[in-house]
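Lecture 7 notes: from sequence to structure.

We start with a single chain of 142 residues. Read the sequence below before looking at the structure.
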Amino acid sequence: MNGRILLCLSCLLVSATAWPVEVYRCVAPDGSVSFQQGPCTGTGERVEPGEVQAAWTGLRAGERRLYHSYRRRDRERARAGRIPSRRSVANRKHPESVTCYNKRHALDEVQARLRAGYGPGEGEKLRRRRDYLEGYLARYCS
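Now the structure, written as tokens:
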């Protein structure tokens, strides 16, 4: 019984190390990087398997510090009242102005979409949405 287990384990170890894997790091003309087992057609180099790292990495230490400094600065400005939040802009007059603000914002987006162009089946839908928003604003928001 123990002999069979040792035989199986030794076969697994031999099979895992018997065929070395060749890995190539290839750079495409557009600058994207890929890893493959065969040689690259363009520019690239052979990489030892221990050196291969993930293609996506997080922020580097300097980038992380810069990101956190921007976030800290924005929080301080918001506390000091220098950066109005979207909610505070909408609540300046009275609570129902939040809805009016959102409807005006939606109307601006629809009008921008109508100016920029749209697909074949989209025009009628956008025009109906615009008419609804204009009617709502005329009736409820002065």
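The chain has three domains: 22-54, 58-84, 91-140. Keep this in mind for problem set 3.
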